[in-house]
Every structure is written in C-alpha cells, then in structure tokens.
Amino acid sequence: MIDTDFTLFHGLASTCSKKVRMTLYEKGLAFKSRLMNLQAFEQHHPDYLKINPNGVVPALLDGDAPVIESSIIMEYIDDRYPQVVPLVPADPLLRTKMRLWLRFSDNVAFDAIMLSTWARLSVKRAQSLSSAELKEVIDRIPTRERRDRWAKIAADGFTDAEVLDAHNKMVNCLQKLEAGLCEGAWLVGAKLTLADIANIPFIERIRTLHPELMAMGRYPALEDWETRMRARPSFDKAFCFTDDPRVADLPKL
Predict the structure, then answer these.
(1) Cβ-based neighbours of 17, under 8 Å, separated by 6 or more
(2) pLDDT band at 3 (very low <50, low <70, confident <90, very high)
(3) Do 139 and 190 share a structural domain?
C-alpha cells in the first residue's frame, strides 16, 4: 500500500462509500478510516458538516482539504496518483464516455436503489423515534430534500405506486448496463476504469435486495462483468470492509 494523507469519512453500507473504497484499494492507496454510524445520524454532526455541508457520505480529506461527492472523489484520487494503476482512460473520447457512466451511477443507478435501501435501513429507524426525537433528527438535516423525505417516510412509508416506480427504475438500470456491456468486456475501453467501479455497488445492492430481478441468464453480459468485478481483490476489501474497529458495531446491509 502507498502512504497518502487521505482520510475517508464513509458509511459501511453506503453504496457511494463502497465505490470510493474500491477505487482506493484498486490503486493500492492507504487511507485513514473514519467510519460513521449513519443510523445514529453522525453525518449531521456540526464537525462533519464543516467537511461536507450536505451531511452525506463519503467525504475525503487530503490533508486538511475536503473533497466531496463520490464520483468527484474517485476522479480526484486518480488525478492525485495518476501513475499508480490508472483508472481513467488517456483517450479524450473514452474519458468522456467514462464520465457519462459516472453520471449514470450518480443519477440513474443511485435513484433506482434509493427506495429499497431506505425501506431496509431508514423506515423502521424513523418510525422507531418519538415525535420529539424525529423532529430533532429532521431539524439537523442540512438539505430540504432529505428533511422532507425523512418526514414523509416516518409518517407514511412508501405507496404502491412508489414501489412500482422503484421496480421499473431498477429494471431500466439493469437493461442500460447490459446494453453497455454488450459492446465490450468493460463499460469503457479494453480495461477496468472508474466507470466500472462507480456502478458495481448498485448492482450488488439490487442483487442483495431484489435477486429476483437478476435471474440467471436474464442479463448475460452484466452477469459476466459482475463475476469479474467480484473476483477482484479490491471488491472484498471495499464491500466487506473490516479496516476499522467500528465495523463490529454498525448495521450491515
């Protein structure tokens, strides 16, 4: 492992944290872990909000300089250590294609798994709080969108229409990735790039929560890609993360 000044603030089950962890392990870069208990809302603590005002994980400190937003963090890591296992294509057109897949992971893939993830991790947590506790939690959330979401799921959960919409979004995500991988072994070019790392956490999440959507043979190119991604040493290190003493005390998905 190569020593760095990186400190990663991250969540154990967070898909966006997994993609940053896998980038670090793929490049063989050491980092200090600051694993956060998202179910205890540590991401809304004033000290953390000084690093990431959005109150979400992950966030990276390079020395004292913060970098936020998972796909931006991934590119920053590769830019910072370009000579070590490059994960960004040198060709400008391929680099542009890679960035489109990063945007896909941030928007389409993230949106596809959000409801199922919240249903597993957040609904019961929200509904377990007293009215006063819930108000305190919601008041500390720095963005209105997330405040509104917490208030809604605590009161109503999810409607049948929202569940159906989430199902359709997951199917769309799988179909788009299958189509992309029918063009080659990797999403961009002839080797692994940040595009692959950015999207594998969402496939792992869909398989965990809704394995029926990924029945054997339904998405052959995607299945082959997923098998190869899971075989990489960086996958287990990032997804079955153990390099922090807090792991034993935090909920897993």
Answers:
(1) 8, 10, 11, 57, 58, 70
(2) very high
(3) yes
In a shared domain, residues 110 and 220: yes
The encoded tokens of residue 57 equal 């994980």
Average pLDDT over residues 82-105: 97
143: confidence class by pLDDT, cuts 50, 70, 90:
confident
Instruction: Looking at the structure, tell me whether residues 97 and 83 fall in a common domain.
Output: no
Q: Residue 220: inside a domain, yes or no?
A: yes
Residue bearing tokens 């969402």: 202
Lowest pLDDT segment from 8-12, 66-70, 144-148:
144-148
Structural contact between residues 51 and 9, judged by C-beta atoms closer than 8 angstroms: yes
Alpha helices (H) in 28-159, listed in sequence order? 46-49, 70-80, 92-104, 110-121, 123-127, 131-140, 144-156
Structural domain span for residue 130? 92-232
Residues 203, 103 share a domain: yes
